[in-house]
Structure formats: structure tokens, C-alpha cells
Amino acid sequence: MNGAHDMGGMHGLGPIDAEIDEPVFHHDWERRVLALTLASGAMGKWNIDISRHARENQPPAEYLANSYYQTWLVGLEKLLVESGLVTADEIANGRSAAPLPDDLEERVLKAEAVEAVLSRGDNFTVEDDIPAKFAVGEPVRVLNNHPTHHTRAPRYVRGKCGVVERDHGVFVFADENSKGPGHRVGQHVYSVCFPAQELWGPDAAAADRINVDLWDGHLEAAPS
Amino acid sequence: MNGAHDMGGMHGLGPIDAEIDEPVFHHDWERRVLALTLASGAMGKWNIDISRHARENQPPAEYLANSYYQTWLVGLEKLLVESGLVTADEIANGRSAAPLPDDLEERVLKAEAVEAVLSRGDNFTVEDDIPAKFAVGEPVRVLNNHPTHHTRAPRYVRGKCGVVERDHGVFVFADENSKGPGHRVGQHVYSVCFPAQELWGPDAAAADRINVDLWDGHLEAAPS
Amino acid sequence: MSDSEDHSDPNHSHLSDTDLRVRSLESLLLEKGMVDADALEALIQTYEHKVGPQNGARVVARAWSEPDYKDWLLRDATAAIADMGYHGRQGEHMYVVENTGEVHNLVVCTLCSCYPWPVLGLPPTWYKSAPYRSRAVMDPRGVLREFGTEIGADVAVRVWDSTAELRYLVLPERPEGTEGMSQEELAALVGRNSMIGVEKVASPNGGAAR
Amino acid sequence: MSDSEDHSDPNHSHLSDTDLRVRSLESLLLEKGMVDADALEALIQTYEHKVGPQNGARVVARAWSEPDYKDWLLRDATAAIADMGYHGRQGEHMYVVENTGEVHNLVVCTLCSCYPWPVLGLPPTWYKSAPYRSRAVMDPRGVLREFGTEIGADVAVRVWDSTAELRYLVLPERPEGTEGMSQEELAALVGRNSMIGVEKVASPNGGAAR
């Protein structure tokens, strides 16, 4: 979706406010939102792409007004309700109307498992022997698509030409994976290098480059 | 500027709320904002492009949250202060700290002049005999520029190819005119016709077209 | 898709704050002598009561009735519309686009809310709002569907983004069942939305235009 | 340029509302037995106190000190960083980009706020904020200037937008005046901002890195 989250190339968002000696959290509720989000993920009801879409798919005025952890909170409430883990009424009341189903009890993240779970991380690669559509050094163009669903091809590179600089290997294709179970398909991800002037015109520095990680599904061979 | 006002191609802004039998104004203050804006314009301190920029140059979260006449109000207050007609203190206090300068008194719009002023309208054309850079039927490309100032070339056509369909004549170039007095230059304005698929990709209807009015300063000859 | 809260509805938020802010500004400008109270009233009266889509409807009805006028309107809309007495602010340069069996026209201003005031009056809220401005150029058929207007695949949709000082008026197709009607009767059929292009003019035998 | 009001500062608005909303959600999930209070505490402790830019600084110091390690880091960052004990969530796939006299690297995530947690901890607010995300790709030299970092016209700026599951760490240039320093001493010089690429590592003779 072409949403407010797709910020590359926007003007008017103000100066960068780099706080000196910034604490990790500014409010206790930020700690809780981080922890609740990570712990709820253990239920296995969504993947990272579904959760990214839950956060970005807010009315743009709200997305822009919300802080980072406010957006995480919006996303978490949405994920919990859409996955059926809790009901909207339960969120409104702050009280549980039904216990956790038995089959989910074993999934609950325990303190003693935290270190191992974080250290292991997630698995975004696909072992399938999927051939690469493009070779390193090959000129490519980003498809000028404007899907209403989640996509990891930012709007500022759509229709633009670059060169494949590195093949990162086969990863789950985020745009499809965001649609839910059964959409886990593997594609090569490339670091595609764009001249700054290709993206932003002649006022950009001629030497500067922007590298964007893109999947096979985002690309076509550049017109010659 | 690439601001929130440049909305063509954004998703997630909700359904269209077409009110049946909508009144011209929903609140009395909307009437006042319209009238104050038109009356203040009679001071001759800004042109339409300066006023458009005053409205669009808000923090994006505020632009998106404000209603149309709220944005007019923000713009009017900004224009009044930036032009020196009133001070920020006067706006904060709602009281005049100094009378209108004598040389502006004759400019004040009187009731008996309203009809004639509105009927006459503004003059956006330039009589100079300026040659057209492009001919009707010529393929053109919109420059991929991203100026931080006001521009009337929407982001969704930048870098895209179309065909000059009509030469509307010589008009004041809005992008320059927004910079203030001394920036009134004339250029041809064309209706440039873009295939929907050129702008939005293969999911758009093949037969559909989008026409955008663009100045010579927005265009270059299309690459062959 | 929206899980919006009260504060996300821009037309009904902070009303009292805004109201106070406008009253304060108005009294400042009146005290300073920069604006004249009677002039403000005259401006409001003009756009609330005198100018509106009935003007555009009369232009359309005449174009439907007089082939020579229609030719003139499509060739030099500014002059042909001025001939009806409609001209001036936000209508200084007019262009009329004709709906036919081959093409359906739709007008938008994605960057602000440009609109042909002398023939249509002030724009409705939806025309000025983000949902319409964002989608009219990218998904015009979806937008038309939201207005109940289905455009066949054999008809091209043509969107006009009012990015300069040209103002657009759609000349809708004359509906069936209007043979022999007077210009006054025809004008009564022509609603604002059909001259923006989001609806067609309904046949008097069928439903009414908005 | 901003004439912003209180409600436009997202980090300091509606705090009590948000606080209440989070407390309510936490008590709901605890009551339901979906989350475990001790696990929540362990998650917070991990990211508030254990994981942070000191990890990345040790990687950088080792790369500056051991040419073989640097080769490995640039060739297979994930394995070389795991060799230091840093791996897992939001650092599953690492890529290290080296600053040289010819190129200066800068990392951003324009679409959300992807960041290499195992080596840098959680991202600072500015990294997640709209001003940085919007401008890093379009005006990187302007962004660098806001951090006091001037990049010469003879040096190319290379921006890395973290749009997939690769996470980027910048290997800064080793500053002058650090010959003979231990890895521990070197690591103490390397600040978070230099590993995102918005600053250089200052020479110990000059100012300090942030």
C-alpha cells in the first residue's frame, strides 16, 4: 500500500531531533508494549510481514501523529483481535472473557526461554533451490505496481532503474507472506544499487548511490 | 515540496463520504474563513501560488488532520504574519496593536465592490509573446525534480511520459510565482495526456488516461 | 479498514477551538480596518446563495439544445460560459470536456481543491477530501463505483487533474427521454456531480441525479 | 518551518491515555494466561540493559585490529558477528558496509524502522522518526550535516535502505591517533551513530563520538 509509512522522499517532516544520551525507553508503557509484542508473537498467529502491515495500515493522519511505540500498540491490538486471540470487547474492558485455548498454553513464552528464543531469532530464508531471475551486475527496473496490500518496494524506487549489486540468497517474499498462512514463497533478494540522480534528478550528487533490498517479484529486466 | 497535500496515488485514506444535500457551509466559522481570506487578498500582499503554498506547507500530520477550511485558516494566519499585515502577537491577542497603514486603506474591499471584484477574477495569463517549447502531439517527459518549494507538478507524474494534447497558452509559472514579487514569469501550459498504465502499471485499465496541466518548466522532450 | 477514533474526523473536531480562533481573527482584522463587515457579508451571500451548480446546469442545458453553442463551448469554454453571465474568480480559464459513448470524464484537483466556482459554486466536502483526491487519478473506476457509476470496459475513463489555472466542467451525456424538453426543464435534471463527472445525468424516466 | 501545536509532538501527547491503554492490555493478557509476567520482565531487561551498541563497537574494534576478522566480517557478516556471540532476533542476516576514503555509508529503514538489534540494541527515536526516514534517501548529505558530519564532494555517499531482512552495520574508518590501542580501548571510541553512519568516529585527540 502507498501509505504514510512509505516516507522516502517526503518533505516537511521537520528537523531530526537527535537526543543526547537518549534512554532506551522514555516511558514505562513503551517497555510494556515492546515486551507484550514480543511475548504475544510466541503464539505463532502472525509473521513479521503481517505485523508490519498491521502497523502501517493506519489512517495516514494517525500514523504520522503516533510515536513508534504507539504504532506498535495499535498494531498489537489489531493483531490480537484479527487473529482471534482476544476479542475487541476484551480489549475495551481489559478483562478476559475466556481462557487461553489449551493448545496454545504450551506456546506461552516463559522467562527461562527468553534468552534462547531471542538468540535463535526468526527464519526468513527458504531452503528451496530456487534459481535467481537476475545476475549480479545485471540492470533491472522496479515494477511500477501500486498494490493495496503490504509491499517492501518503496514508492520512490518504483519504475526506476538500478543494477543488481549482490544476491543475498532466497528469502520469504514479504509482499505475499503478509497475506497470511499459505503465502510463504521463496525468492531471491538482491541489493539493487540506484544512482541518486536516477531517483531524485540532477540536483542529487552524481556520485551518490542508494541501495535497496528487493525481491525477484519486484523487478524486471531494465529496458535497453 | 513533496508534502501530504500531493495526494494522488495514496492509499488508506478511507471511503469517499458524499453527503446528500450537503450545505455550502457546515459551520458559521467556515463562512467567516472564506470571507476573511477573500477580503484579505485585496491587500495585494500575496498571489494565489503564495497562498497555496501557505496552506500546503504544514506538518503532514496536521495537514491530514485539518479540514479544508481549517487549512484555509492556518494559511490565512500565516500569510497575514509573513506579509507583515499583522503580527503574531496581534493574532494571539485578537486585538490590533497598530492601525492599517494609510497606503493600504484604499485597498480595503468594500461591499459595493465585491460583485465587480469576483466577476473580474484574477489574471493568470502573461501577454508576452513567449514561444512554446513543445508542440501539440509531441511526446514529453515530466522532469524528475523534487524541489522543496511550491510546485504544481504532482509527484505521481514525475519522470513519466505523456503526450502534449493541448496548448492552453502562456500563464504565470506557479512554481516561481510562489516565491513572491519579482518571480512572475510566463510559460506555456499544456494539457499533457498520460496513459493510466504509464502512471500506475499494468493493473490500470489500458484505455484510461490522466490529463495533467503542466508548464514548460516541468517538461523535457521524451527520450526516443 | 479504518479503526479511527473521534479525533480522526477532521470536520467535527476542535470545533469550538477553531470557532474561537476565527472570531478572534475576524475581530482583529475588523478593528484594524483591514476588512469591512459589509463586504464579508456580501462575499458570504454570493457563495452561499447566488453562485452554484444551477449555473453550470444552464450551460449544459443550452449545449444540449443548441448545436452551435455546444461547438463554441467545446472550442472556447471561457467565452461561451461568459456569454451566459458566468465568469470571474476561479473560473477565469474554463475548459469543457464532453462525455460520449467512448469516453467518460472525471475532474479532480489532487494538490489542493481547484474547482470552477462561477459555474458550480464552492466545492462539496468530498471533492476537497483526501479519499477523493488520492484515488481519483489512480483508481477512477473504483471512485466512480462508490458513486454508483459503472463505466463499461469499452469506455475510456479520462481524468483531468486541475494542476494549473484551467478549470474543468464536464458536459454530461444527454439522457434518453428528454426529447422536446425546454432548456429550463433540462437544467433541472443536471446535478453538480454529473458536471464533476462522478455521476451521469439520469433519465427523467429513471432515478434522479444528485 | 513548523508552526506546530502541542498535539503535533507524537512523543509527548496522550501519554496518560496511552499508559492506561497499555496497562489495560497487559492485565488482560496476563489474566488470559497468554503472557507470563517474568518473561515480560526478562524481555525488558534484555533490551534495556544487556544488548546495546557496545556489542557493535566490539565488532568494529576487532575488525580494526585483526585483518582476517575484517575480511570475514565483510564477506560473511552474520557468521563473523555470531563468532562474537551476537546473533538472533533482528540480526538474523547481517551485512557490513565499510567506510573508506572513497565512500561513506548510511543506514535507514524508510518503510518502518528495521535495525540490527543484536549489535546496536533498540534504535534511538530519531532513527524511527519521520524526519530521518523521509530524508536519508533523498538528501543524505543534508541529513549528515544535521549530525555535524560533512562529507566531501570527492566522497560518494551510499545509503542502505533496509527493506528486506538484511540488517546493516557500518564499519567506520579507524581514526588517527589510535595506533597501538587495545580492542577494549578502541571499542570505547565507537559510538552508535558511527555504526549507523550519521557520524564518523572521532579521533581520541579531538572530540568524542556520540
Features:
heterotetramer, A: 224 residues, alpha+beta, Cyclin A, domain 1, SH3 type barrels, 5-stranded antiparallel β-sheet, 9 helices, 5 strands, 16% strand, C: 210 residues, alpha/beta, Nitrile Hydratase, Chain A, 2 domains, two-stranded parallel sheet, two-stranded parallel ribbon, 4 strands, disordered N terminus
Q: How would you characterize this protein structure?
A:
The complex is a heterotetramer, with two copies of chain A (224 residues) and two copies of chain C (210 residues). Chain A is of the alpha+beta class and 224 residues long. Chain A is 33% helix and 16% strand. Chain A has a five-stranded antiparallel beta sheet with strand order 4-3-2-1-5. In chain A, α2 packs across α4 (68-82). Chain C has two domains: 17-49; 52-196, Alpha-Beta Complex (Nitrile Hydratase, Chain A), CATH 3.90.330.10. Helices cover 43% and strands 11% of the residues of chain C. Chain C has helices at 15-32, 37-50, 53-65, 67-75, 77-82, 117-120, 125-128, 130-135, 140-146, 183-187, 192-196; strands at residues 93-98, 103-108, 156-161, 166-171. Chain C has eleven helices and four strands. Chain C has a two-stranded parallel ribbon with strand order 1-4. In chain C, strands 2-3 form a two-stranded parallel sheet. The B-D interface holds B 57-62, 74, 78, 146 and D 1-5, 8, 10, 130, 138.
